[in-house]
Write a structure and sequence with these properties.
CATH topology of the largest domain: 60s Ribosomal Protein L30, Chain: A
Strand order of the largest sheet: 2-1-3-4-5
Number of domains: 2
CATH architecture of the largest domain: 2-Layer Sandwich
Structural class: alpha+beta
Number of strands: 9
Length: 175
């Protein structure tokens, strides 16, 4: 798939065109080029270190999503993306090069055009990393919180004063 088509798909998912989507598209483009295929289930796992617009491109193009459990977010504020392929038993980490936005005078549209004129290898430091993927997503029973009654994943239930409660209720009682 060409960069233009990938951008269209990612922008439709994200809702608008921006430099972050372009960065995510270039990351996804590299992973596809490297042979990591679209993930119908949990064949791929993306570990991202940011919560910016770029992550939506990975979701749209690679089908690594929070809902399936194959998109893991570490809130480090870095444009770093590690993709694990369970089929290939390989992992690749992309890290945005600091030099990519040295020219502070570029407009938003100019940044997008600049990014899209480059290949992923020009904007990312790329390295193969140890294959140690996160575990597969688990499906857990939901149980009612004894305080508010809302269904909660059993692994997130807190026990406080002999009551099983969801985290928000636990935090209210623990004050």
């Amino acid at each position: 798939m060409e960069t233009k088509d990938l951008m269209k798909k990612a922008t439709m998912f994200h809702g608008h065109l921006c430099p972050g989507v372009a960065i995510g598209v270039l990351a996804a483009k590299f992973f596809l080029k490297y042979g990591f295929e679209h993930s119908p289930d949990e064949e791929l796992v993306a570990v991202v270190e940011t919560n910016n617009c770029s992550v939506d491109a990975l979701q749209a193009i690679l089908s690594t999503t929070y809902g399936k459990g194959n998109l893991i977010h570490h809130d480090y504020g870095k444009n770093n993306y590690t993709l694990y392929s369970r089929r290939k038993q390989k992992a690749i980490r992309l890290s945005l090069k600091p030099s990519i936005f040295e020219d502070k005078k570029l407009s938003r549209d100019e940044k997008i055009q600049k990014l899209l004129s480059l290949e992923p290898e020009q904007i990312f430091t790329i390295k193969e990393v140890e294959y140690d993927p996160p575990s597969m997503a688990t499906i857990e029973d939901s149980v009612p919180c004894e305080v508010c009654g809302e269904l909660t994943m059993s692994s997130r239930i807190m026990n406080y004063q002999n009551s099983n409660m969801c985290i928000p209720c636990y935090k209210q009682f623990k004050k």
